[in-house]
Amino acid sequence: MKRRASLSQRNLFHGRWWMCFCLLVQFVGTAGCMSFIGMPGQREKKTLDELTDGTPDLAGKFTHPYGMDYVKIEAISMVTGLSNTGEDPPPTPQRAALLADMNRRKLEHPERILASPNTALVLVRGFLRPGIQEGDLFDVEVRVPSRSETTSLRGGWLLSARLTELAVLGQQIRQGHVLGVAEGAILVDPSASAEESEPYSTRGRVLGGGIATKSRPMGLVIDDRYKSVHLASQIAKSINHRFHTRIDGHKRGVANPKNDELIEIAVHSRYKDNVGRYMRVLQSTAVSETAHQRQERVALLREQVLNPLTAAAASLQLEALGDEQAVELLLNAVESDDIEVRFYAAESLAYLDDTAAVPVLADVARDEPAFRVNAMAALSAMDNLNAFEALRSLLSVESAETRYGAFRSLWAMNPHDPVIVGDDMNGAFRLHQLDVGGTPMIHVTNSHRPEVVLFGQQPPLKLPLLIDAGTGLLINGMQNGQITVSRFDDAKQVEQRVIEPEVNELIRAMVDLGGTYPDVVQALQEANTQGALKSRLRVDALPQSGRRFVRQEEEDDTTDGPAETGFDLATPLPDLFRRKS
Predict the structure, then answer these.
(1) I want to staple 522 with a disulfide (CB 3.0 to 4.6 A). Which of 190, 236, 568, 573 is the partner?
(2) pLDDT value at position 552?
């Protein structure tokens, strides 16, 4: 009996001790005895809950973009049509590679062709932009190798080149798959002479001369710590709920989960000229969001979109939502007194094709240089008559970059519109005569696409004038108040056109006589140097990126005036205005 009583007392003591211990644990904030001891796997679940903090995860937490870099592709080719400024290249791996290519093409007497002073071996380079599709055009750079005796590429024509990713292994040039082909007239700096500026006269560009032969893949790569087939499917499902495109004639979601770490992404047509923004929007998409989580997030975004410090990220999330509630919050934000809030909200509304974005973006493009490039790209992405009219109104302003930026945006919106379509100059370039107000201006490009844009009615050329435009073209305006454009061929035969001293007629006469885009650019720049042009001449007057917006902060108690804070924009540079294309 004694022993039994002793055991009972001992059990009673232990029970009371255990009860007190559990109460103590509860008192210091744990969730009871079982919570303190923990169930299997509960510690890992708690850690994940702490990471999410009760809010839905965005795709950007688990992924990083793939295919957003520029891919360099190269080739070794030949330039013809030079005026005794070429060379017979020395025996090098480049020469061997070119001879092998000429033999593959079954050209007769390749050695004799290479020895001609009217030809030159050149190195060709292009950059494939993110999201480029098969058949898209890109610029190519052309230059002679180091220690080459070629003195100028002016007037030259780049023969068809097959561009690949190159590598030198074992003293031999190794080529990858052909990713582009290039051909065309070479644009050399018109101010460069073979005698005084040889480094500049032996390099040039073929604008839009490259054609992509394969589409570049893009996607989202899941970070190693989150790799999962289930997660890849959930992210793709969330993205496809918002974005669709047509693939092989069928409407499909843009996201395709390939495995546990890669989600392939098709480019949505609205973002074709701004794939950097497209990827940011995709990464701002919530993954597996419940209705309650969505309601809480929208309430938070309602405040964030009105704060200049958080407006950019909040606008991207609302753009990723893309529904009526998101549009409502963005519409409220475009009425803000803060220019940053208005801009970021209007930019997102433009990619949602909402008309309310137009007046804000048009004002920003006209008056705020730091936002101009992104505002114009956003307007060009819209399928909206108001956006077209807003861009058209910018064609008459004083700023050269605003005028040409508006033109390029209109071209991206609809290249076939009668306002900007222009005339095809024998396939060499396009000539656009714009019936707009403002100071007369002539714009030529050194990137993206060969084109001459005449803004407004052009004044007559000032005579007398005498220009050697290269490749046998002579422009003579020395008498009778007219201009004679002559073309001399190798047999010393002459073909002529007599025209009035008008810029438009001069360009057309040169093309009619076989002149190329580089010839026209050279003639215009020489006419400008001689004082014959009464219009402004601008080259690549693109809206500038990298400008810092100056924010006016509240007055500092220790200063007499407002404090200014400069910062970079929280929005990527659109591909529409990139020079490396």
Answers:
(1) 190
(2) 54
